[in-house]
Amino acid sequence: MSEAREVMIQASRRLADEVRLSLEYYQGSVPDAHRVERMVVAGPAIAIPGFANALGAEFGLPVEMRSFGHVNVEPGVLDEIDSSQLTVAAGLALDGVPT
């Protein structure tokens, strides 16, 4: 196995561990938590061949790769969505927000 491939596998495992901790927290703290059925990967990592598949293999879930670019959410567009469905995504996104 090439050294670059091994680095990618180790990085996906570390990221998977962080995501797993977030999922466990979500499932343990949100009453009637929705089951996570798929993953969406965005950002620079989608350019790494095999990264999304390696991450998906860690969870046994299908993975979608998306380039979101600039996302503009119109006021009210999320009003009808059950907020518990956004908990994991919002929590992971907030990790990069300065406090």
Description:
The chain is mainly alpha-helical. It has three helices and two strands. The protein has a two-stranded parallel sheet. Strand 1 (39-41), helix 2 and strand 2 form a beta-alpha-beta unit. Helix 1 crosses helix 2 (51-59). The longest helix has 27 residues, at 3-29. The protein is flat and about 50 Å long. The termini are far apart.
Question: In short, what is this structure?
Answer:
With 99 residues, this protein is mainly alpha-helical. Helix content is 44%, strand content 6%. It has helices at 3-29, 51-59, 87-94, and strands spanning 39-41, 63-65.
Q: Record the strand order, biggest sheet.
A: 1-2
**How many strands, what sense, and barrel or not for the largest sheet?**
2 strands, parallel
Instruction: Indicate the low-confidence ranges by residue numbers.
Output: none
Rg (CA only): 15 Å
Number of strands: 2
Number of domains: 1
Which class of secondary structure composition applies to the elements?
mainly alpha
Shape, per Cα inertia axes: flat
How helix-rich are the residues, as a percent range?
40-55%
State the order of secondary-structure elements, H for helix, E for strand: HEHEH
What value does the average pLDDT take? 76
User: Number of helix segments?
Assistant: 3
